[in-house]
Design brief:
161 residues, globular
């Protein structure tokens, strides 16, 4: 069994087929935790960083309705909709993957305020994935790069607010 708190190079073969069709397929991916089965359906949530209460309730309801199905919730670990999606997945026993806009080293993991959320994801058999070098800080250009991975792994993308 792999140590969940040590980053390792993730084989692209362990990811769903649709991921292999993204533009500029990454040469390598880093992972903390255990990547879920590619046989699951991957649902990516994106949306506002300053989400309304209604939007947060919508995310919670959609994910609650997926509980018990072979679904993986994907998002970017950011504030707002991303964090709500990860937390709802954890609350309802669904696997979740976070694609931070940074490397996976604790010193640069972004946003810093979500270190506990990242730890909770790992404790509940989810994972964090990044194509950036481990010590790469979040910068304006890292987010569009990361966004193509979240879209590329998805069977479905849910945009909230």
């Amino acid at each position: 069994m792999r140590q969940k708190y040590l980053p390792y190079e993730l084989s692209l073969d362990t990811l769903p087929t649709q991921f292999h069709h993204i533009p500029k397929l990454p040469k390598q991916l880093w992972c903390l935790g255990e990547a879920p089965s590619p046989a699951h359906k991957y649902v990516t949530f994106v949306g506002s960083r300053k989400a309304s209460e209604y939007a947060l309730q919508v995310v919670e309801q959609i994910i609650r309705d997926m509980a018990g199905f072979p679904v993986v919730i994907v998002s970017g670990l950011a504030y707002g909709i991303d964090a709500a999606a990860h937390r709802a997945a954890l609350a309802h026993g669904l696997s979740t993957i976070a694609f931070p806009g940074s490397g996976l080293d604790r010193k640069v993991l972004y946003p810093h305020g979500h270190h506990q959320l990242a730890a909770d994801i790992l404790l509940n058999d989810g994972c964090l994935i990044s194509e950036f070098k481990l010590a790469q800080p979040a910068l304006p250009w890292t987010f569009p790069v990361r966004n193509r991975l979240m879209a590329g792994i998805a069977d479905i993308v849910v945009i909230v607010e």
